[in-house]
Every structure is written in structure tokens, then in C-alpha cells.
Design goal:
Number of domains: 2
CATH superfamily of the largest domain: Pseudouridine synthase
CATH topology of the largest domain: Pseudouridine synthase
Shape: globular
Strand content: 25-35%
Number of helices: 8
Radius of gyration: 19 Å
CATH class of the largest domain: Alpha Beta
Helix content: 25-40%
CATH architecture of the largest domain: 2-Layer Sandwich
Structural class: alpha+beta
């Protein structure tokens, strides 16, 4: 029978804005001197929220945890399109925003619910020929990207004060929420980009149960062990 260490499992981290998912992995690995550390689903640097960090034998469950459905909340800014589809990119178009109501936004968003063939943004970590697309984009190279099938379970707007709308989306893994923002802006004829993004759930795990990265890094090892979700619980 396999014997599990107290650090074989996962941590729920509330990722701050301004760092990459890999940065979170690296800081936890170095702070606690853990050899095997990984994450389950990349969040862009400016995105916040639930990042599942797997430790030790928990890394064997990365694919399982990564395949779970996700829920995100955030803000979309209308009237400006960017090359990255979010605030990190260069503005490519500025257009007047038509009068919009919540009902109109939700009606437009409903067209994206269901199966969706989504083309990855050029400014993304998706690899083509072994090279991340964002590296090609930096060189001014644009390549044809194969669309991939994702599923949008729900896409709703909860508040709107021109030009910012608050939304909540439930979707399958691999969905580019910033692409949803970009495509909605195109549909409405005014352009749009993702202003903020926060992952609130991944599978059965909720950001409400996560600790901030700073709080985790401040824990003594004994307290960290108490925060680890055991391997067998993850595997259920």
C-alpha cells in the first residue's frame, strides 16, 4: 500500500495580480523546499483567484484537477479592443459605445452559451510548433490557430455602468475568457477587452477556502501541512 507524506496533496491559493502561475509555484517550492510542485490551470498575470497548487505525489493528479470545469467573474470594458484581448495589450481600436442595458448585454452573451469553437489569442501561452504564441506575436508574426471546442454553461452580466460591465461565466477547461470579451465587443460593434478576471471555482474547490499567497508563505511548515488537501481526498 502506498504511503503518503503530509505534503502529498494540494494547496488552494488565492493568486494575486501581477505574478504568473509559475511564480506562485516557484515561491512555494523555494520557501518550503519541496521538490515537486505544480499548478492546475494557468491564470494570466493580471488575473486573480483560485490556483490549485499540487505538491509531491499530488502532482500525479494535475491532469485530473486541470480537467475540471471553472467559474470566473470579472469586468469587461467596451469601446476599446486590444491585441491581447485584455488590459496587457496594445489598443487596436477605439469606438463609441452604443446605449446598452443589462438585458441587451445578456441577450448578446446568450449567443455564446453552449459548444463553441474558440480560436486561441495570438498573445497567449498556447504553443504552435513548440513556440508559445505570445513569442511569435512579439515579433509581429501572426499564424493561423486551430480552433478548439469549449463549452460555455452560463454567461451572465450582473451590473453595467458604461463602459464597464460585470460578468460571471461557467465554462470548461481551456476556455479563453478574454476571447469571449473580445468576441462580444465585435458582436456589439464597439470592441471590448477583459479588464479584470477572477477564478472563483475549479471543480468542487472554491476560492473562499483558499489562502492568499502571502499568507501561505508566512505559515510555519507544521501549519502548512494542515492546509494541504490530502492525495486520497483529491483523487475521489
Amino acid at each position: 500500500m502506498l504511503q503518503f507524506d503530509s505534503l502529498d496533496g494540494a494547496l488552494l491559493v488565492d493568486k494575486p495580480a501581477g505574478c504568473t502561475s509559475h511564480d506562485v509555484v516557484d515561491r512555494i517550492r523555494r520557501k518550503f523546499n519541496i521538490k515537486k510542485v505544480g499548478h492546475c490551470g494557468t491564470l494570466d498575470p493580471n488575473a486573480t483567484g483560485l490556483l490549485i497548487i499540487v505538491l509531491g505525489r499530488g502532482t500525479k493528479l494535475s491532469e485530473k484537477l486541470m480537467s475540471d470545469d471553472k467559474v470566473y467573474e470579472g469586468d469587461i470594458k467596451f469601446g476599446e479592443a486590444t491585441d491581447s484581448y485584455d488590459t496587457d495589450g496594445e489598443i487596436t481600436a477605439t469606438l463609441p459605445v452604443p446605449p446598452l442595458t443589462l438585458d441587451q448585454l445578456n441577450e448578446a452573451a446568450s449567443a455564446f452559451i453552449g459548444d463553441l469553437q474558440q480560436v486561441p489569442p495570438m498573445v497567449s501561452a498556447k504553443k504552435q510548433g513548440g513556440v508559445p504564441l505570445y513569442k511569435l506575436a512579439r515579433k509581429g508574426i501572426e499564424v493561423v490557430r486551430e480552433p478548439r471546442l469549449v463549452h460555455i454553461y452560463n454567461y451572465r452580466f450582473t451590473a453595467y455602468a458604461e463602459p464597464i460591465a460585470k460578468f460571471r461565466v461557467a465554462c470548461t477547461k481551456g476556455t479563453y475568457v478574454r476571447s469571449l470579451a473580445h468576441e462580444l465587443g465585435q458582436k456589439l460593434g464597439c470592441g471590448a477587452h477583459l479588464a479584470t478576471l477572477r477564478r472563483v471555482t475549479s471543480g468542487k474547490w472554491d476560492v473562499a477556502d483558499a489562502l492568499t499567497l502571502d499568507a501561505i508563505l508566512a505559515l510555519p511548515l507544521g501549519e502548512l501541512e494542515k492546509r494541504v488537501i490530502p492525495f486520497l481526498q483529491l483523487a475521489r
